[in-house]
Amino acid sequence: MKRTKLNVVGTSDTAAIKREIQYIAREIVIARDGGCILRDLHYDGIPECNGYANSGQLILQADHLITRSNSATFADTRLIVCLCKGHHAWKSLGSNARKREYDELVRTLLSPERVKLWDACERDSWKPNRGAAFNWSVTLAA
Prior knowledge:
The protein has 142 residues and is mostly helical. It has helices at residues 13-33, 85-96, 99-109, 112-124, 136-141, and strands at residues 60-64, 80-84.
């Protein structure tokens, strides 16, 4: 059997569209949140915003409140928040060791409607959705 290197990034049409969705979702949440949503929190144990590019600009990331593997919520920007690279690393370090603390903080910053949606989607996220076909082109257009 011939061994070939695995692609780091998918090359299918679906993979390309999902990358475009992620790019647009990131731009939307950065504009909506005005930067890292944890920027004004100054609690013991939570770092200040950090993670700068060589240009000196703070690196901002789109953090999905529900895993991106859940297609039903993948592109829903109500379930995505803007974090700086440093806060994202703080949450994610050690296999999401601080996820519970992070989730509690984020819940205090979101509107009640978004928290309600988040809870409903988390309750349903374990349910198999076999046979569901997503039209990612339509999702991108939306």
